[in-house]
Amino acid sequence: MLRARQRLGKYRIEKRISSGGFATVYRAMDTIEGIRVALKIPHAENITEDVLKDFRREVRLAVQLEHPHILSLKNASFIDGHFVIAFPLGERTLGDRLSNRMSLATALGYAQQMIEAVAFAHRHRIIHCDIKPENLILFSGNRLKLTDFGIAKVAQKTVQGSGTGTVGYMAPEQAMGKPSLRSDVFSLGLILHRMLSGKWPEWPFDWPPPNFHRVRGRVHPDLIAVIRRCIDPQPRKRYRDAEQLLKAFLPAEAKATRHAARKKRNGRAAG
C-alpha cells in the first residue's frame, strides 16, 4: 500500500479510493500538470510477462477509443517499480450514485451516454466485457464516462484464471466464457433496469424482473420493450450490438420523456 503524501514520479498520493483482488486505486496530484488524477496500480504479484503483454495490447486498443463518454487513458508506465495506469479523476461512480433515488431524466441521460460509449467501441469491434456501475465514472454536469476497456479484461483473466466479467452484471453466455457484442448489450440492459426500478434483475432473468411495476408506472411501453430485448437470456434475441440498441433507444427515450411530461401535467390538472 502507498501512503498519503508519498511521491511516485510526478504523482503525489493523496488517498486510497478503492482496492480489489487485482489492483488498488488512489487519488493523486499530478505535480507537473497541477491536476488530480486516479491511479490504478496492480498488485506486484499480478504483474507477469504474460500480463504485461496483454496490457500492452489492451492499452493500444483503448487509446483508439477517443469519445466524449469513454474515459481517456492519461498514462501507463512503470514508475519506481510500480506499474501505474493514470486516468482523469471523476467525482464518483454510477455505483455510488445508485445508492440514492434517481429522477427519470437523470437515468435516461446516463443511459444514453453509456449506450453511446459502448456503441462507439462496438463500431471498432471492441467488446468491453465488464460493463458495471463501478466502471461508469461520473463528472460534473451529470457527465458519464465508461472506463476500464481491456484493463478489466486483463484483471479478471489474471485473478480468476479464466473467463472475464463480474458476476451479477454479465450475460449467461459470457459466464460460460463465450462473450460477444450482445453480452455488452445485456449488461447495459441490466443497468438501465436498475436505474429505473431500484432493483437488479437476477438469474435466471425471467420476465418480468424485480420491481417491474415501478418501471411500468414510470416509462413508455416502447422503452420497456427495449429493456426486455436487452436482457433476454438468449443472445440471438437481443440487439446484435450497442449501435443497434442505440437506434432503438433514442426514439423510445423521446417517447418516455413525453410520456412522463404528460403524466405530470395530468397530475397537476387533477390536483
Lateral strand order in the biggest sheet: 1-2-3-4-6-5
Question: For the CA atoms, what is the radius of gyration?
Answer: 20 Å
Query: What integer is the average pLDDT?
Result: 88
CATH fold type of the largest domain: Transferase(Phosphotransferase), domain 1
Helix content: 40-55%
What profile does the largest beta sheet have? 6 strands, antiparallel
**SSE-based structural type:** alpha+beta
Ends: how far apart? 59 Å
Q: How many domains is the backbone divided into? A: 2
Instruction: Name the CATH homologous superfamily of the largest domain.
Output: Transferase(Phosphotransferase) domain 1
Oligomerization category of the chains in this entry: single chain
Give the amount of beta strand, in percent.
Answer: 15-25%
* Tally of helical segments: 9
Q: Which CATH architecture of the largest domain?
A: Orthogonal Bundle
H/E element sequence: EEEEHEEEHHEEHHHHHH
Give the uncertain stretches in residue-range form.
Answer: none
Shape: globular
